[in-house]
Amino acid sequence: MRYGFWMPVFGGWLRNVADEQMEASWDYAKRLTQRAEQIGYDLTLIAELNLNDIKGVEAPALDAWSTAAALAAVTDTIELMVAVRPNFHHPALFAKAAANIDRISGGRLALNVVSSWWADEARQYGLQFDQHDDRYARTQEWLTVVDGLWSEERFSFSGQFYRTEDAICAPKPAKRPTVYAGGESDKAKAMIAAQCDAYVMHGDPVDAIAPKIADMAARRAAAGGAPMQYGMAAYAIVRDSEAEAKRELERITAVSDLPAGYANFDQWLSGTQLERTLKIQEYSVSNRGLRPNLVGTPEQLRERIEEYEAAGLDLLLLQMSPQDEEMERFAAQVMGTA
Q1: Torsion angle (degrees, nearest 10) of CA 10, 13, 16, 22
Q2: How far is CA 244 from CA 174, 192, 289, 326, in A?
Q3: N or C: which end of the chain has fewer CB within 10 A?
Q4: Would you tell me the crossing angle of helices 186-195 and 132-151 to the nearest 10 degrees?
Q5: What are the angstrom distances between the C-alpha of 107 and each of 52, 75, 104, 252?
Q6: Do 10 and 24 touch, CB atoms closer than 8 A?
Q7: 243 exposed, middle or buried (CB, 10 Å; 0-12, 13-18, 19+)?
């Protein structure tokens, strides 16, 4: 299993805990990522939203791509998996900038391609917001242009959304960045199986993840591609006893009032193909992070992680709080690397 962590670009991951002692700052991001390298983490996922989806839209949120460029220069081994939303980035200009960041990092850049869901954010920034199937049609073209510029000396393209004419991207990436993407509709899965390298999922129990991996593996084989990688989001709580872990779980999921960001969550649900059965308690942790039940003793977590590995999962994208302290504990007690 590879272990990654979500960069706390929003100042934390708990919607019901106001201050998690992990501010949305370059200072914290730098210290956390450098320490993560030292204690054995493989990857960091840097989310891209201009508005703060966790603490409320008025709260600070770090910019993903300038943060990634800065981290590329001050780290040595960790993979930088940076979210990118096609409707916010022209593909030809993006290909040029991302190739340079990959060069700075020595070939450690990866993309997490996200077909946007937040209509209000796009409206506030004056950007196009496509309906569901059009998002994936745009993403398909966008990836074609980016890959073309990274692989060909000059690249021309004429599509519904984008055009290029003998465009040049030089220097090219040190190595072609891995392209991760997620989605639960047939349109999304077809696009990912054809054009991406890795499939990332929201958190779910093993018996829900296993058939998703099997389905994507079959789609990938039908598309004639190399085997894919599979990742999943999860929130982790590791303690010396199960009772301690459950007390921490109760602390972070207790809801007395609707948090500031609830309206954004409601919009997110209404704009995707995700199950509509999420309860307000689950809202406390994003990306269905509590469903994998990585809550308990080190032995319990290792046993559950082995079950995910047996199902074909090879990457965990972890959220914790406070992240620096909890990542140290997880590395020492579960990964055995700190």
Answers
A1: -60
A2: 46, 40, 19, 14
A3: N
A4: 10
A5: 29, 12, 8, 37
A6: yes
A7: exposed
Q: What are phi and psi of 213, to 5 degrees?
A: -65, -45
Encoding tokens for residue 17? Answer: 């805990």
| DSSP conformational letter for 333 | I
Please give the Cα distance from 279 to 284 (Å, whole number): 10
CA angle at 180 for the pair 177 and 181, rounded to the nearest 5° = 145
Helix spans in the chain (H): 26-38, 64-74, 91-105, 119-124, 132-151, 186-195, 206-223, 242-253, 262-270, 298-310, 323-330
- One-letter amino acid at 64 equals A
Which residue is it, tokens 């780290």? 75
pLDDT in tens, 209-261: 999 999 999 999 999 999 999 999 999 999 999 999 999 999 998 765 555 55
Specify the amino acid at residue 264.
N
Is the CA virtual torsion 180, 280, 236, 57 positive or negative? Answer: positive
Distance between first and last Cα of the chain: 16
